Amino acid sequence: MNHAFRFAGAALMLTGLLALPAAQAQSWPTKPIRIISPHPPGGPGDIPFRGIAQYLGPKYGQPFVIENRPGANAVIGAEMCAKAAPDGYTFCGTNNGTISINPLAYPNLPYDPLKDFIGIINIGEIESVLIAHPSFPANTIEELFAMAKAKPDSISWSTIGVGSGSHLTLEWLRTRGVPFLHVPFKGGEAAMNAVVGGQVNISMNAAGRTAPMIRAGKLKAIAVSGDRPSQFVPGVRSLGEAGYKVDTGIWIGMFAPAAVPRALVVRLNADINGLLKNKDYVAKFVSTQGMVPVGGSVDEFNAYLKKERAFYEKLVKDTGVKLGQ
Fold it and tell me: What pTM value is reported for the model?
């Protein structure tokens, strides 16, 4: 009889413990929610989350507070998020530079993105454009790559820095026999302006930044990233369409400390997926940043994160590039 009571008591205790996350999800939130962005205010690592705050704050009955903590190539803000209490009141918004590339650049990174975070949702991909000054001789991918093959490292390519998506695209092309001269800058604006001013030949730069300059005739578009036509610079072929399919694009995603109750993660995922179907949200907070909405499930995003890390590990090994330099 005592054994039966002990078994029943243990079963009730287990049932109660399993019910805690669900009950927490139902009552959550009861106080303001913090989203840490390890990026400066005003860019794609910030603006989409301000839109989330604007739409979901009233829905949840609690404000979302965006806390920008840039520095050390996003390591400072990411570490704050990874080590925050997993109570559902601290999340973070960042990109694949922070999640997939930094672990390869910094051997002593104070967190492991695949272990210390859970991905909530991929909000969108930042479309990039391969740009040149209007006077540059090449007008197509084929013409540009023929020039690069004929005179290796004679065509300068500006990037936003070592380890950026643009830099890794350049290194990937080198492994395909298309060598360019890497010229790193500190930021996308500087990299683009170097092309406008004629100091550098070409650059792979964000569509949100370059499209207005292309329309103004200060730049020309040779190609776009990815494998599909661009909605920002119509009529320009993608690298993938030309036979150079490489997944070094930049995405923006939302994350939580790994131990946050899954019920909260799934709820946020569902609500943000809803926002990505909201034309007003997308127009104001996604498209303005040169981004294309992605969305998808929690499991899909986390599976992609593992696949992407493996891709970059192989790319770094194949090219021998030193990301931490």
Answer: 0.83
